[in-house]
Amino acid sequence: MRSHTSQKAARFTESVIREMSRVCAQHGGINLAQGFPDFAAPAAMKEAAKRAIDADVNQYAVTWGAPSLRRAVARRTAAYNGIPTDADKHVTVCCGATEAMIAALLAILDPGDEVVIFEPFYENYGPDCVLSGATPRFVRLSGDDWTFDERELRAAFGPKTRAIIVNTPHNPTGKVFTTDELEVIAGLCREHDVIALTDEIYEYILYDGASHVSIATLEGMAERTVTISGLSKTWSATGWRIGWCVAPESITSAIRKVHDFLTVGAPAPLQEAAAEALDFGPDYFADLGRAYVERRGLLLPALEACGLAPFVPRGAYYVMTNIRGVTQLDDVAFAMQLVEGGGVATVPGSSFFADPSDGRDLVRFCFAKRVETLERAAAELVRRLG
Ligand SMILES: Cc1ncc(COP(=O)(O)O)c(C=O)c1O
After folding, report:
1. Cα–Cα distances in Å, from 114 out to 1, 132, 162, 212?
2. Which of 229, 233, 271 has most ligand 1 atoms within 8 Å of its beta carbon, as the pocket-test mutant?
3. What helix, strand, coil percent values describe the chain, rounded to 5?
4. 316 Cα nearest atom in ligand 1
């Protein structure tokens, strides 16, 4: 019998990150693997969602986003990111940043085009390239600040390059790209007439005075950047599946068409609630930042006490850790051993690299968890490894 599945689907595996959550549940472990909070979403946002359902906002919203949410995205993107944004021309609301990224890639790329991706990378970008028929060109981030070599980046740009994906703050490393680094990337985008797709989903989660810079604010970049963000991380609601992208008008109309035929639209009542949440005042964002500083402060010393060598994140809510101080196992075997018998679930480093052997010394911990969860995890880690 011939194969009834596509060659595309055969070219990537199931998500290792999501798989680790399933493994964790089987072992009754503490889930520091997948990037989602185990604490409540903001009460005012939940109330707004209930009100919207009761008011019968239960049918399709405008395909590219409820006007209230597009206006809120435009206000927030202009005020926080410094990107002048028109709700009617530039904003597309999607089912999470995940859909915004694949919709944008499908809108921009043709088969055979090349996309530059920094490695390690958030694992979705690999399958995203396969689905859009594009070839990824990986550029390594390395050293304690996970920076790139400018010559290597320049060499990755060629006649087939159509786009570069920039994720800042970065999953899995916690790197926050500096203005100087973004200027180098922007220069190459302008020189090669390339689009920047920037995944800024962790833009409000920053440490040690790091500041978030959107590449679209650099000279000549607004007209060649798709800026992606969403509700999942800043508003602790990964299950609501609300995200958005801001892009120039011509790219937005292509993205809206792709988005329409992919999903029609994001959940209508949750869009109304998201519109209210985006207008939360400065205290909300300050409290979010402080809570993550506390969580990071609980996990890092526990990892160090165990003999692990964590990279200190400057943004997002993950710690990438070298494991060689505690084991000779590879990343997958170590992660499996650590979760067994009610242990701690992590994500093996190999899932963030094109060549799995490049991640064999690394695992990633997520600290978007309650203090109590992190304290339990810390105690379990010290008991097993310390
Ligand atoms: C870098 C990055 N982008 C996107 C996502 C997913 O975002 P959403 O829930 O909005 O689809 C994640 C989730 O972990 C992520 O780490």
Report:
1. 34, 10, 6, 27
2. 233
3. 45, 15, 40
4. 16
pTM above 0.90, yes or no: yes
CA dihedral 350, 353, 354, 356 (to 10 degrees): -20
Ligand 1 pocket member 238 (CB < 6 A): yes
Residue 366 CA to ligand 1 centre (angstroms)? 13
98 Cβ inside 6 Å of ligand 1: yes
Note whether 315 and 212 are within 8 A (CB): yes
User: For residue 107, which phi and psi values (nearest 5 degrees)?
Assistant: -75, -25
Measured distance CA(153)–CA(189) in Å, rounded:
11
Q: pLDDT digit string (tens) for 159-189?
A: 999 999 999 999 999 999 999 999 999 999 9
The rounded mean pLDDT for the chain is 96
Structure tokens at 125: 């970008």
Lowest mean pLDDT among 22-36, 45-59, 108-122, 280-294: 22-36
CA neighbor of 49 nearest in space, from 308, 221, 275, 212: 275
- pLDDT single digits (tens) 75-109: 999 999 999 999 999 999 999 999 999 999 999 99
Ligand 1 centroid from CA 201, angstroms: 6
Give me the torsion for CA of 308, 313, 319, 323, rounded to 10°: -30
Distance 92 CA to ligand 1 centre (A): 16
Q: Which residues pair with 117 in a beta bridge?
A: 138, 165
C-alpha 97 – ligand 1 centre gap (Å):
6
